[in-house]
User: Fold this.
Amino acid sequence: MASLREPFISRRGPSPVARLICPSFIILSRNIPMTQPARTRFAPSPTGYLHIGGARTALFAWLYARHTGGQFILRIEDTDRKRYVLDALDKIIAGLRWLGLDWDEGPDVGGPHAPYIQSQRLPKYQEAADWLVAHGHAYRCYCTPEELAEMRAEQQARKQKVGYDRRCRWLTQEERAAKEAEGRSWVVRLAAPLEGEVAFEDEIRGRVTFDVRELQDAVLLKADGYPTYHLAVVVDDHDMAITHVIRGEEWISSAPLHVLLYQFFGWDLPAFAHTPSILKPSGKGKLSKRDLKTPEGGNVPIMLHEYPDYGYLPEALFNFLSGIGWSLDDRTEIYDRETAIKHFDLKAINPAPARFPVEKLDWMNGVYIRQLDVEEFRRRLLPYLSRDLGVPEAELAQDRRLNPLLPHVQERIKRLTEAAQWVDYLYVDEVDLGDPQSLVPRKTTPEEALVILDAIIETLERVDGWDEETLESTLRALAEARGWKAGQVFAPIRQALTGKKVTPPLFPILVALGKDASLTRLRRALNQLRAHLEQA
RNA sequence: GCCCCCAUCGUCUAGAGGACUAGGAUGUCAGCCUUUCAAGCUGAAGACAGGGGUUCGAAUCCCCUUGGGGGCGCCA
Assistant:
Protein backbone atom coordinates (compact mmCIF):
# COMPACT_ATOMS: atom_id res chain seq x y z
CA MET A 1 0.00 0.00 0.00
CA ALA A 2 2.88 2.29 0.71
CA SER A 3 3.89 2.23 -2.90
CA LEU A 4 0.52 3.64 -3.82
CA ARG A 5 1.31 6.83 -2.03
CA GLU A 6 4.52 7.23 -3.88
CA PRO A 7 3.20 9.03 -6.95
CA PHE A 8 1.53 11.61 -4.78
CA ILE A 9 4.46 12.73 -2.74
CA SER A 10 5.43 16.23 -3.58
CA ARG A 11 8.24 16.34 -6.07
CA ARG A 12 9.38 19.66 -4.83
CA GLY A 13 9.84 19.00 -1.18
CA PRO A 14 8.02 20.99 1.43
CA SER A 15 6.17 23.80 -0.23
CA PRO A 16 6.86 27.34 0.88
CA VAL A 17 3.13 27.86 0.98
CA ALA A 18 2.55 25.05 3.38
CA ARG A 19 -0.41 25.32 5.64
CA LEU A 20 -1.29 22.64 8.08
CA ILE A 21 -4.91 22.69 8.93
CA CYS A 22 -6.60 20.12 11.11
CA PRO A 23 -10.06 19.83 12.46
CA SER A 24 -10.50 21.86 15.61
CA PHE A 25 -7.27 23.75 15.39
CA ILE A 26 -5.41 25.61 12.78
CA ILE A 27 -1.77 26.24 12.20
CA LEU A 28 -1.00 28.65 9.46
CA SER A 29 2.22 29.69 7.91
CA ARG A 30 1.46 32.78 5.96
CA ASN A 31 2.79 35.28 3.52
CA ILE A 32 4.03 33.87 0.30
CA PRO A 33 6.84 36.08 -0.93
CA MET A 34 5.97 37.72 -4.24
CA THR A 35 9.16 36.44 -5.73
CA GLN A 36 8.01 32.84 -5.54
CA PRO A 37 7.07 31.72 -9.02
CA ALA A 38 3.53 30.40 -8.88
CA ARG A 39 2.12 27.48 -10.76
CA THR A 40 -1.53 28.18 -11.53
CA ARG A 41 -3.96 26.34 -13.68
CA PHE A 42 -7.24 26.78 -15.42
CA ALA A 43 -9.28 23.63 -15.52
CA PRO A 44 -12.40 23.94 -17.65
CA SER A 45 -14.87 21.17 -18.11
CA PRO A 46 -16.09 20.40 -21.63
CA THR A 47 -19.67 20.08 -20.46
CA GLY A 48 -20.40 23.43 -22.02
CA TYR A 49 -18.74 26.46 -23.51
CA LEU A 50 -16.64 28.89 -21.59
CA HIS A 51 -18.58 31.90 -20.44
CA ILE A 52 -17.08 35.27 -19.90
CA GLY A 53 -16.94 34.89 -16.13
CA GLY A 54 -14.92 31.72 -16.48
CA ALA A 55 -12.68 33.50 -18.93
CA ARG A 56 -11.96 36.14 -16.34
CA THR A 57 -11.02 33.51 -13.79
CA ALA A 58 -8.64 32.04 -16.35
CA LEU A 59 -7.31 35.52 -16.97
CA PHE A 60 -6.59 36.09 -13.28
CA ALA A 61 -4.85 32.73 -12.97
CA TRP A 62 -2.79 33.52 -16.05
CA LEU A 63 -1.94 37.00 -14.82
CA TYR A 64 -0.77 35.68 -11.50
CA ALA A 65 1.44 33.02 -13.05
CA ARG A 66 2.99 35.58 -15.37
CA HIS A 67 3.32 38.15 -12.61
CA THR A 68 5.34 35.78 -10.50
CA GLY A 69 7.28 34.39 -13.42
CA GLY A 70 5.74 30.99 -12.85
CA GLN A 71 3.76 28.65 -15.07
CA PHE A 72 0.21 28.56 -16.26
CA ILE A 73 -1.28 25.17 -16.93
CA LEU A 74 -4.37 24.13 -18.83
CA ARG A 75 -6.08 20.99 -17.64
CA ILE A 76 -9.26 19.44 -18.91
CA GLU A 77 -11.70 18.14 -16.34
CA ASP A 78 -13.74 15.77 -18.43
CA THR A 79 -14.86 13.31 -15.80
CA ASP A 80 -18.53 13.80 -16.49
CA ARG A 81 -19.18 11.49 -19.38
CA LYS A 82 -22.90 12.11 -19.47
CA ARG A 83 -22.80 15.80 -20.20
CA TYR A 84 -19.87 15.91 -22.56
CA VAL A 85 -20.35 18.53 -25.29
CA LEU A 86 -18.52 17.52 -28.41
CA ASP A 87 -17.21 20.84 -29.69
CA ALA A 88 -16.84 22.51 -26.31
CA LEU A 89 -13.16 21.76 -25.86
CA ASP A 90 -12.15 23.19 -29.22
CA LYS A 91 -14.12 26.33 -28.61
CA ILE A 92 -12.71 26.77 -25.12
CA ILE A 93 -9.14 26.40 -26.31
CA ALA A 94 -9.67 28.65 -29.31
CA GLY A 95 -11.28 31.25 -27.10
CA LEU A 96 -8.48 31.28 -24.57
CA ARG A 97 -5.85 31.57 -27.27
CA TRP A 98 -7.75 34.36 -28.94
CA LEU A 99 -7.86 36.20 -25.63
CA GLY A 100 -4.10 35.95 -25.57
CA LEU A 101 -3.71 33.46 -22.75
CA ASP A 102 -0.98 30.94 -23.35
CA TRP A 103 -0.17 27.91 -21.25
CA ASP A 104 3.13 26.33 -20.46
CA GLU A 105 1.65 22.90 -20.00
CA GLY A 106 -1.58 21.51 -21.31
CA PRO A 107 -3.29 18.87 -23.39
CA ASP A 108 -2.11 20.28 -26.69
CA VAL A 109 1.39 21.32 -25.66
CA GLY A 110 2.28 18.52 -23.27
CA GLY A 111 4.47 18.94 -20.24
CA PRO A 112 6.18 17.08 -17.42
CA HIS A 113 2.91 16.15 -15.74
CA ALA A 114 1.12 14.84 -18.81
CA PRO A 115 -1.52 13.81 -19.52
CA TYR A 116 -3.49 16.97 -18.82
CA ILE A 117 -6.84 15.41 -19.56
CA GLN A 118 -8.44 13.79 -16.57
CA SER A 119 -10.13 11.00 -18.45
CA GLN A 120 -6.62 9.84 -19.31
CA ARG A 121 -5.50 9.81 -15.70
CA LEU A 122 -8.04 7.39 -14.27
CA PRO A 123 -5.58 5.01 -12.58
CA LYS A 124 -4.22 7.85 -10.49
CA TYR A 125 -7.60 8.62 -9.01
CA GLN A 126 -8.42 4.98 -8.47
CA GLU A 127 -5.18 4.43 -6.63
CA ALA A 128 -5.78 7.51 -4.56
CA ALA A 129 -9.28 6.37 -3.69
CA ASP A 130 -8.04 2.92 -2.74
CA TRP A 131 -5.40 4.46 -0.57
CA LEU A 132 -7.96 6.54 1.27
CA VAL A 133 -10.17 3.52 1.83
CA ALA A 134 -7.24 1.47 3.06
CA HIS A 135 -6.38 4.16 5.55
CA GLY A 136 -9.87 4.67 6.81
CA HIS A 137 -10.40 8.11 5.27
CA ALA A 138 -12.96 6.86 2.80
CA TYR A 139 -15.29 3.95 2.35
CA ARG A 140 -17.25 2.10 -0.24
CA CYS A 141 -20.90 3.01 -0.45
CA TYR A 142 -23.29 0.55 -2.06
CA CYS A 143 -26.38 2.71 -2.17
CA THR A 144 -28.13 2.93 -5.49
CA PRO A 145 -29.27 6.25 -6.94
CA GLU A 146 -32.82 5.09 -6.27
CA GLU A 147 -32.10 4.45 -2.62
CA LEU A 148 -30.51 7.85 -2.30
CA ALA A 149 -33.45 9.57 -3.95
CA GLU A 150 -35.76 7.78 -1.58
CA MET A 151 -33.65 8.84 1.37
CA ARG A 152 -33.73 12.45 0.25
CA ALA A 153 -37.47 12.36 -0.25
CA GLU A 154 -37.95 11.08 3.27
CA GLN A 155 -35.66 13.72 4.68
CA GLN A 156 -37.59 16.41 2.89
CA ALA A 157 -40.91 15.02 4.02
CA ARG A 158 -39.71 15.08 7.60
CA LYS A 159 -38.12 18.48 7.08
CA GLN A 160 -34.80 17.07 8.12
CA LYS A 161 -31.47 18.14 6.73
CA VAL A 162 -31.03 16.75 3.27
CA GLY A 163 -27.84 14.81 2.72
CA TYR A 164 -26.31 11.40 2.70
CA ASP A 165 -26.96 9.75 6.04
CA ARG A 166 -23.69 7.77 5.99
CA ARG A 167 -25.48 4.47 6.26
CA CYS A 168 -22.73 2.63 4.39
CA ARG A 169 -20.03 4.14 6.51
CA TRP A 170 -20.94 1.93 9.45
CA LEU A 171 -21.31 -1.33 7.58
CA THR A 172 -19.49 -4.30 9.09
CA GLN A 173 -17.01 -6.38 7.13
CA GLU A 174 -19.64 -9.08 6.78
CA GLU A 175 -22.24 -6.68 5.49
CA ARG A 176 -19.81 -5.32 2.96
CA ALA A 177 -18.89 -8.77 1.82
CA ALA A 178 -22.56 -9.56 1.41
CA LYS A 179 -23.21 -6.43 -0.68
CA GLU A 180 -20.30 -7.19 -2.91
CA ALA A 181 -21.36 -10.81 -3.23
CA GLU A 182 -24.67 -9.46 -4.49
CA GLY A 183 -22.67 -7.89 -7.26
CA ARG A 184 -23.63 -4.41 -6.14
CA SER A 185 -21.63 -1.62 -7.65
CA TRP A 186 -20.18 0.95 -5.30
CA VAL A 187 -18.82 4.43 -5.06
CA VAL A 188 -16.10 5.66 -2.77
CA ARG A 189 -17.14 8.27 -0.26
CA LEU A 190 -15.04 10.50 1.89
CA ALA A 191 -15.23 9.71 5.59
CA ALA A 192 -15.50 13.26 6.79
CA PRO A 193 -14.64 13.98 10.41
CA LEU A 194 -17.70 14.07 12.62
CA GLU A 195 -16.79 17.17 14.52
CA GLY A 196 -14.37 20.02 14.52
CA GLU A 197 -13.63 22.83 12.13
CA VAL A 198 -11.86 23.09 8.84
CA ALA A 199 -10.42 26.37 7.76
CA PHE A 200 -8.32 27.70 4.99
CA GLU A 201 -6.80 31.01 4.20
CA ASP A 202 -8.22 32.52 1.04
CA GLU A 203 -5.88 34.95 -0.71
CA ILE A 204 -8.79 37.22 -1.56
CA ARG A 205 -11.02 36.87 1.48
CA GLY A 206 -8.85 35.88 4.37
CA ARG A 207 -9.71 33.00 6.62
CA VAL A 208 -12.79 30.96 5.84
CA THR A 209 -13.99 28.52 8.46
CA PHE A 210 -16.45 25.66 8.25
CA ASP A 211 -17.92 23.36 10.83
CA VAL A 212 -17.26 19.83 9.55
CA ARG A 213 -20.78 18.89 10.47
CA GLU A 214 -21.83 20.87 7.43
CA LEU A 215 -19.78 18.59 5.25
CA GLN A 216 -21.08 15.59 3.41
CA ASP A 217 -19.45 12.26 2.92
CA ALA A 218 -18.94 13.34 -0.64
CA VAL A 219 -18.56 10.85 -3.43
CA LEU A 220 -14.95 10.72 -4.57
CA LEU A 221 -15.08 7.91 -7.07
CA LYS A 222 -18.19 7.20 -9.08
CA ALA A 223 -19.59 3.79 -9.90
CA ASP A 224 -18.22 4.10 -13.41
CA GLY A 225 -14.70 4.35 -12.02
CA TYR A 226 -14.40 8.06 -12.84
CA PRO A 227 -13.46 10.45 -10.06
CA THR A 228 -15.65 13.31 -9.04
CA TYR A 229 -14.31 16.84 -9.17
CA HIS A 230 -13.31 16.73 -5.51
CA LEU A 231 -10.92 13.83 -5.85
CA ALA A 232 -9.61 14.70 -9.27
CA VAL A 233 -8.88 18.32 -8.51
CA VAL A 234 -6.92 17.51 -5.37
CA VAL A 235 -4.97 14.66 -6.88
CA ASP A 236 -4.14 16.64 -10.00
CA ASP A 237 -3.34 19.92 -8.32
CA HIS A 238 -0.94 18.10 -6.09
CA ASP A 239 0.49 15.95 -8.83
CA MET A 240 0.99 18.96 -11.05
CA ALA A 241 2.54 20.95 -8.21
CA ILE A 242 -0.04 23.72 -8.38
CA THR A 243 0.86 26.36 -5.81
CA HIS A 244 -2.24 28.56 -6.15
CA VAL A 245 -5.67 27.16 -6.70
CA ILE A 246 -7.52 30.00 -8.40
CA ARG A 247 -11.14 29.26 -9.19
CA GLY A 248 -14.62 30.73 -9.01
CA GLU A 249 -16.27 31.44 -5.69
CA GLU A 250 -18.83 28.73 -6.28
CA TRP A 251 -16.10 26.40 -5.03
CA ILE A 252 -15.79 27.94 -1.60
CA SER A 253 -18.33 25.54 -0.18
CA SER A 254 -16.42 22.49 -1.25
CA ALA A 255 -13.01 23.85 -0.39
CA PRO A 256 -13.09 22.33 3.11
CA LEU A 257 -13.58 18.94 1.50
CA HIS A 258 -10.46 19.51 -0.50
CA VAL A 259 -8.55 20.72 2.51
CA LEU A 260 -9.52 17.50 4.28
CA LEU A 261 -8.27 15.46 1.36
CA TYR A 262 -4.92 17.22 1.34
CA GLN A 263 -4.69 16.53 4.99
CA PHE A 264 -5.59 12.86 4.67
CA PHE A 265 -3.08 12.39 1.91
CA GLY A 266 -0.50 14.22 3.94
CA TRP A 267 0.11 16.75 1.21
CA ASP A 268 1.03 20.39 1.52
CA LEU A 269 -1.88 22.69 1.00
CA PRO A 270 -1.77 25.06 -1.93
CA ALA A 271 -2.91 28.64 -1.56
CA PHE A 272 -6.53 29.22 -2.48
CA ALA A 273 -8.05 32.20 -4.20
CA HIS A 274 -11.76 32.15 -4.94
CA THR A 275 -12.58 34.82 -7.46
CA PRO A 276 -15.86 36.72 -7.22
CA SER A 277 -18.49 35.77 -9.72
CA ILE A 278 -19.63 38.00 -12.52
CA LEU A 279 -23.33 38.65 -12.36
CA LYS A 280 -25.68 39.11 -15.27
CA PRO A 281 -26.13 42.74 -16.32
CA SER A 282 -29.49 42.66 -14.57
CA GLY A 283 -27.70 41.66 -11.38
CA LYS A 284 -29.93 38.66 -11.01
CA GLY A 285 -27.71 35.63 -10.66
CA LYS A 286 -24.27 34.85 -11.89
CA LEU A 287 -23.43 34.35 -15.50
CA SER A 288 -23.85 30.74 -16.45
CA LYS A 289 -22.89 28.58 -19.36
CA ARG A 290 -26.50 27.70 -19.58
CA ASP A 291 -27.34 31.29 -20.41
CA LEU A 292 -25.86 30.81 -23.87
CA LYS A 293 -26.40 33.81 -26.12
CA THR A 294 -26.51 37.44 -25.07
CA PRO A 295 -27.41 38.43 -21.55
CA GLU A 296 -30.66 40.22 -20.98
CA GLY A 297 -30.30 43.96 -21.18
CA GLY A 298 -27.37 43.79 -23.52
CA ASN A 299 -26.27 42.70 -26.94
CA VAL A 300 -22.99 41.34 -25.71
CA PRO A 301 -22.41 37.61 -25.96
CA ILE A 302 -21.91 35.46 -22.90
CA MET A 303 -19.66 32.81 -24.38
CA LEU A 304 -16.03 33.69 -24.90
CA HIS A 305 -15.78 32.08 -28.31
CA GLU A 306 -18.47 34.36 -29.67
CA TYR A 307 -16.65 37.60 -28.94
CA PRO A 308 -14.61 37.60 -32.14
CA ASP A 309 -17.79 37.31 -34.18
CA TYR A 310 -19.26 40.31 -32.47
CA GLY A 311 -16.35 42.47 -33.49
CA TYR A 312 -14.46 42.74 -30.24
CA LEU A 313 -10.70 43.03 -30.13
CA PRO A 314 -8.96 40.49 -27.92
CA GLU A 315 -6.72 43.09 -26.31
CA ALA A 316 -9.78 45.18 -25.49
CA LEU A 317 -11.61 42.26 -23.94
CA PHE A 318 -8.50 41.38 -22.00
CA ASN A 319 -8.23 44.88 -20.59
CA PHE A 320 -11.93 45.02 -19.87
CA LEU A 321 -12.11 41.65 -18.14
CA SER A 322 -9.13 42.36 -15.95
CA GLY A 323 -10.92 45.46 -14.70
CA ILE A 324 -13.85 43.57 -13.22
CA GLY A 325 -12.91 42.81 -9.65
CA TRP A 326 -9.45 44.21 -10.00
CA SER A 327 -7.99 47.56 -10.86
CA LEU A 328 -4.53 48.67 -11.82
CA ASP A 329 -4.68 51.77 -9.64
CA ASP A 330 -7.10 54.56 -8.84
CA ARG A 331 -7.20 56.12 -12.31
CA THR A 332 -5.84 53.98 -15.11
CA GLU A 333 -8.44 52.29 -17.28
CA ILE A 334 -6.52 51.54 -20.45
CA TYR A 335 -3.42 49.40 -20.10
CA ASP A 336 -1.76 46.61 -22.01
CA ARG A 337 -1.01 43.04 -21.01
CA GLU A 338 2.51 43.74 -19.83
CA THR A 339 1.34 46.50 -17.54
CA ALA A 340 -1.39 44.29 -16.13
CA ILE A 341 1.11 41.52 -15.47
CA LYS A 342 3.43 43.90 -13.73
CA HIS A 343 0.79 45.25 -11.36
CA PHE A 344 -1.43 42.23 -10.83
CA ASP A 345 -1.92 40.83 -7.37
CA LEU A 346 -4.39 38.25 -6.11
CA LYS A 347 -4.73 40.08 -2.84
CA ALA A 348 -5.93 43.19 -4.63
CA ILE A 349 -8.96 41.42 -6.04
CA ASN A 350 -12.23 42.83 -4.78
CA PRO A 351 -14.18 39.92 -3.24
CA ALA A 352 -17.59 41.39 -4.05
CA PRO A 353 -19.49 39.93 -6.99
CA ALA A 354 -19.83 42.39 -9.86
CA ARG A 355 -22.33 42.87 -12.58
CA PHE A 356 -21.13 42.59 -16.11
CA PRO A 357 -20.71 46.25 -17.14
CA VAL A 358 -21.88 45.89 -20.70
CA GLU A 359 -21.68 49.59 -21.65
CA LYS A 360 -18.09 49.90 -20.61
CA LEU A 361 -16.94 47.11 -22.88
CA ASP A 362 -18.19 48.84 -26.01
CA TRP A 363 -16.52 52.06 -24.98
CA MET A 364 -13.24 50.31 -24.33
CA ASN A 365 -13.38 48.35 -27.55
CA GLY A 366 -13.85 51.66 -29.36
CA VAL A 367 -10.77 53.04 -27.64
CA TYR A 368 -8.73 50.07 -28.79
CA ILE A 369 -10.06 50.32 -32.31
CA ARG A 370 -9.05 53.96 -32.50
CA GLN A 371 -5.64 53.08 -31.11
CA LEU A 372 -4.85 50.79 -34.03
CA ASP A 373 -2.74 52.19 -36.80
CA VAL A 374 -4.71 52.34 -40.02
CA GLU A 375 -2.94 49.44 -41.68
CA GLU A 376 -3.62 47.19 -38.73
CA PHE A 377 -7.18 48.42 -38.57
CA ARG A 378 -7.61 47.56 -42.22
CA ARG A 379 -6.13 44.12 -41.77
CA ARG A 380 -8.41 43.29 -38.88
CA LEU A 381 -11.47 44.85 -40.43
CA LEU A 382 -11.45 43.16 -43.82
CA PRO A 383 -12.85 39.79 -42.69
CA TYR A 384 -15.79 41.55 -41.05
CA LEU A 385 -16.41 43.81 -44.00
CA SER A 386 -16.29 40.83 -46.29
CA ARG A 387 -18.78 38.91 -44.21
CA ASP A 388 -21.16 41.80 -43.61
CA LEU A 389 -21.01 43.21 -47.12
CA GLY A 390 -21.00 39.89 -48.91
CA VAL A 391 -17.94 40.87 -50.87
CA PRO A 392 -15.00 38.46 -51.18
CA GLU A 393 -12.15 39.48 -48.93
CA ALA A 394 -9.65 39.32 -51.78
CA GLU A 395 -11.71 41.83 -53.67
CA LEU A 396 -11.85 44.16 -50.70
CA ALA A 397 -8.12 43.82 -50.21
CA GLN A 398 -7.60 45.21 -53.71
CA ASP A 399 -10.11 47.97 -53.34
CA ARG A 400 -8.22 51.20 -52.95
CA ARG A 401 -11.43 53.20 -52.62
CA LEU A 402 -11.59 52.08 -49.02
CA ASN A 403 -8.41 53.89 -48.06
CA PRO A 404 -9.65 57.46 -47.74
CA LEU A 405 -12.59 56.26 -45.70
CA LEU A 406 -10.88 53.94 -43.28
CA PRO A 407 -9.60 56.47 -40.75
CA HIS A 408 -13.07 57.94 -40.50
CA VAL A 409 -14.72 54.59 -40.06
CA GLN A 410 -12.18 53.73 -37.41
CA GLU A 411 -13.15 56.79 -35.44
CA ARG A 412 -16.82 55.99 -35.56
CA ILE A 413 -17.20 52.37 -34.59
CA LYS A 414 -17.14 50.55 -31.30
CA ARG A 415 -17.17 47.11 -32.81
CA LEU A 416 -15.76 45.89 -36.09
CA THR A 417 -19.18 44.64 -37.08
CA GLU A 418 -20.40 48.22 -37.29
CA ALA A 419 -18.04 49.13 -40.11
CA ALA A 420 -20.11 47.86 -43.00
CA GLN A 421 -22.85 50.39 -42.49
CA TRP A 422 -20.35 53.21 -42.98
CA VAL A 423 -19.10 52.05 -46.37
CA ASP A 424 -21.84 49.89 -47.84
CA TYR A 425 -22.80 52.51 -50.43
CA LEU A 426 -19.51 51.81 -52.20
CA TYR A 427 -20.72 48.33 -53.04
CA VAL A 428 -24.00 49.03 -54.72
CA ASP A 429 -24.53 50.10 -58.29
CA GLU A 430 -27.35 52.41 -57.47
CA VAL A 431 -28.00 53.85 -54.10
CA ASP A 432 -31.54 53.75 -52.81
CA LEU A 433 -32.41 57.42 -52.46
CA GLY A 434 -35.68 56.82 -50.76
CA ASP A 435 -37.99 59.77 -50.57
CA PRO A 436 -36.67 62.45 -53.00
CA GLN A 437 -37.58 64.89 -50.29
CA SER A 438 -34.53 63.67 -48.39
CA LEU A 439 -32.42 65.46 -50.99
CA VAL A 440 -33.79 68.74 -49.75
CA PRO A 441 -31.72 70.27 -46.93
CA ARG A 442 -33.26 71.82 -43.90
CA LYS A 443 -34.55 75.37 -44.30
CA THR A 444 -34.50 74.96 -48.04
CA THR A 445 -37.32 74.73 -50.54
CA PRO A 446 -37.39 71.80 -52.97
CA GLU A 447 -37.03 74.25 -55.84
CA GLU A 448 -33.97 75.74 -54.28
CA ALA A 449 -32.56 72.27 -53.66
CA LEU A 450 -32.90 71.59 -57.34
CA VAL A 451 -30.89 74.69 -58.11
CA ILE A 452 -28.26 73.74 -55.58
CA LEU A 453 -27.91 70.23 -56.91
CA ASP A 454 -27.64 71.54 -60.41
CA ALA A 455 -24.94 73.97 -59.39
CA ILE A 456 -23.05 71.26 -57.55
CA ILE A 457 -22.99 69.06 -60.60
CA GLU A 458 -21.91 71.83 -62.87
CA THR A 459 -19.15 72.82 -60.49
CA LEU A 460 -17.89 69.31 -59.96
CA GLU A 461 -17.90 68.56 -63.65
CA ARG A 462 -15.45 71.37 -64.13
CA VAL A 463 -13.35 70.91 -61.04
CA ASP A 464 -9.67 70.52 -61.67
CA GLY A 465 -8.28 67.82 -59.40
CA TRP A 466 -10.32 65.29 -57.44
CA ASP A 467 -8.81 65.40 -53.99
CA GLU A 468 -10.27 66.28 -50.63
CA GLU A 469 -8.73 69.74 -50.38
CA THR A 470 -9.73 70.84 -53.85
CA LEU A 471 -13.23 69.48 -53.51
CA GLU A 472 -13.75 71.13 -50.18
CA SER A 473 -12.48 74.53 -51.21
CA THR A 474 -14.40 74.37 -54.46
CA LEU A 475 -17.68 73.48 -52.86
CA ARG A 476 -17.25 75.98 -50.08
CA ALA A 477 -16.51 78.65 -52.63
CA LEU A 478 -19.66 77.66 -54.46
CA ALA A 479 -21.74 78.00 -51.34
CA GLU A 480 -20.27 81.34 -50.53
CA ALA A 481 -20.70 82.69 -54.05
CA ARG A 482 -24.35 81.75 -54.12
CA GLY A 483 -25.16 82.72 -50.55
CA TRP A 484 -25.84 79.16 -49.38
CA LYS A 485 -24.81 77.69 -46.10
CA ALA A 486 -22.19 75.00 -46.37
CA GLY A 487 -24.64 72.47 -44.96
CA GLN A 488 -27.12 73.26 -47.71
CA VAL A 489 -24.56 72.18 -50.27
CA PHE A 490 -23.15 69.21 -48.39
CA ALA A 491 -26.39 67.58 -47.34
CA PRO A 492 -27.74 66.83 -50.82
CA ILE A 493 -24.39 65.50 -51.91
CA ARG A 494 -24.29 63.16 -48.94
CA GLN A 495 -27.76 61.94 -49.67
CA ALA A 496 -27.16 61.52 -53.39
CA LEU A 497 -23.93 59.63 -52.91
CA THR A 498 -24.90 57.34 -50.06
CA GLY A 499 -28.64 57.43 -49.60
CA LYS A 500 -27.98 58.20 -45.94
CA LYS A 501 -28.04 61.20 -43.77
CA VAL A 502 -25.34 59.92 -41.45
CA THR A 503 -22.04 59.02 -43.09
CA PRO A 504 -18.33 59.59 -42.79
CA PRO A 505 -17.19 63.06 -43.88
CA LEU A 506 -18.18 63.98 -47.38
CA PHE A 507 -14.92 64.67 -49.15
CA PRO A 508 -13.33 61.31 -48.48
CA ILE A 509 -16.49 59.76 -49.85
CA LEU A 510 -16.26 61.82 -53.04
CA VAL A 511 -12.65 60.78 -53.41
CA ALA A 512 -13.42 57.13 -52.70
CA LEU A 513 -16.23 57.05 -55.25
CA GLY A 514 -14.23 58.94 -57.86
CA LYS A 515 -15.40 61.63 -60.19
CA ASP A 516 -17.43 59.54 -62.59
CA ALA A 517 -19.37 57.55 -60.05
CA SER A 518 -19.96 60.63 -57.94
CA LEU A 519 -21.36 62.62 -60.83
CA THR A 520 -23.48 59.73 -61.97
CA ARG A 521 -25.08 59.49 -58.57
CA LEU A 522 -25.55 63.25 -58.36
CA ARG A 523 -27.22 63.41 -61.75
CA ARG A 524 -29.50 60.57 -60.88
CA ALA A 525 -30.48 62.35 -57.69
CA LEU A 526 -31.11 65.54 -59.61
CA ASN A 527 -33.37 63.70 -62.01
CA GLN A 528 -35.32 62.08 -59.26
CA LEU A 529 -35.81 65.35 -57.48
CA ARG A 530 -36.90 67.02 -60.70
CA ALA A 531 -39.36 64.25 -61.47
CA HIS A 532 -40.67 64.50 -57.98
CA LEU A 533 -41.26 68.23 -58.31
CA GLU A 534 -42.93 67.98 -61.69
CA GLN A 535 -45.21 65.33 -60.35
CA ALA A 536 -46.29 67.49 -57.48
C1' G B 1 -34.46 25.76 5.35
C1' C B 2 -29.08 25.24 6.67
C1' C B 3 -23.96 26.82 5.67
C1' C B 4 -20.45 30.11 3.30
C1' C B 5 -19.18 34.72 0.80
C1' C B 6 -20.19 39.86 -0.06
C1' A B 7 -22.02 45.25 0.54
C1' U B 8 -18.70 52.92 -2.01
C1' C B 9 -22.23 57.10 -7.57
C1' G B 10 -27.28 53.55 -12.30
C1' U B 11 -22.75 50.37 -13.50
C1' C B 12 -17.19 48.98 -13.05
C1' U B 13 -13.95 50.67 -9.40
C1' A B 14 -10.00 53.77 -5.80
C1' G B 15 -10.03 53.87 -0.58
C1' A B 16 -6.51 48.91 4.08
C1' G B 17 -8.61 54.97 11.29
C1' G B 18 -7.04 61.32 10.36
C1' A B 19 -4.31 63.01 3.40
C1' C B 20 -12.36 62.39 2.06
C1' U B 21 -15.38 68.74 0.66
C1' A B 22 -15.12 60.33 -0.78
C1' G B 23 -11.01 60.02 -6.39
C1' G B 24 -11.20 57.71 -11.54
C1' A B 25 -14.01 55.43 -15.53
C1' U B 26 -18.51 54.35 -17.94
C1' G B 27 -23.37 55.78 -18.84
C1' U B 28 -26.66 60.22 -18.65
C1' C B 29 -27.33 65.56 -19.38
C1' A B 30 -25.36 70.44 -21.03
C1' G B 31 -21.78 73.47 -23.70
C1' C B 32 -17.67 74.01 -27.19
C1' C B 33 -15.88 72.19 -31.92
C1' U B 34 -18.44 71.00 -36.53
C1' U B 35 -20.76 69.35 -43.50
C1' U B 36 -24.15 64.73 -40.85
C1' C B 37 -22.61 61.17 -37.25
C1' A B 38 -18.59 60.31 -34.35
C1' A B 39 -14.07 61.55 -31.93
C1' G B 40 -12.05 65.37 -28.84
C1' C B 41 -12.40 69.21 -25.03
C1' U B 42 -15.15 71.60 -20.87
C1' G B 43 -18.82 71.28 -17.25
C1' A B 44 -23.10 69.16 -14.33
C1' A B 45 -25.96 65.71 -11.65
C1' G B 46 -24.70 61.14 -9.11
C1' A B 47 -22.44 56.72 -3.73
C1' C B 48 -20.04 55.13 1.68
C1' A B 49 -27.48 50.03 2.68
C1' G B 50 -29.60 50.86 7.96
C1' G B 51 -28.74 50.66 13.21
C1' G B 52 -25.65 50.02 17.28
C1' G B 53 -20.77 49.99 19.27
C1' U B 54 -14.91 50.76 19.63
C1' U B 55 -12.04 55.41 19.11
C1' C B 56 -10.15 62.06 20.35
C1' G B 57 -11.51 60.62 15.25
C1' A B 58 -14.76 55.35 10.99
C1' A B 59 -16.29 54.53 4.12
C1' U B 60 -12.27 52.00 6.65
C1' C B 61 -12.42 47.86 13.00
C1' C B 62 -16.56 44.84 15.81
C1' C B 63 -21.86 43.33 16.31
C1' C B 64 -26.91 43.15 14.57
C1' U B 65 -30.45 43.97 10.71
C1' U B 66 -31.43 44.31 5.67
C1' G B 67 -30.11 43.27 0.84
C1' G B 68 -27.34 40.53 -2.91
C1' G B 69 -24.46 36.20 -4.45
C1' G B 70 -22.90 31.10 -3.97
C1' G B 71 -23.32 26.06 -2.18
C1' C B 72 -26.13 21.93 -0.12
C1' G B 73 -25.68 15.76 -6.90
C1' C B 74 -22.51 8.96 -8.54
C1' C B 75 -22.20 17.94 -12.28
C1' A B 76 -18.18 20.51 -12.72
Remarks:
- The longest strand of chain A covers residues 197-202.
- DSSP finds 19 helices and 13 strands in chain A.
- Residues 506-535 of chain A form the longest helix (30 residues).
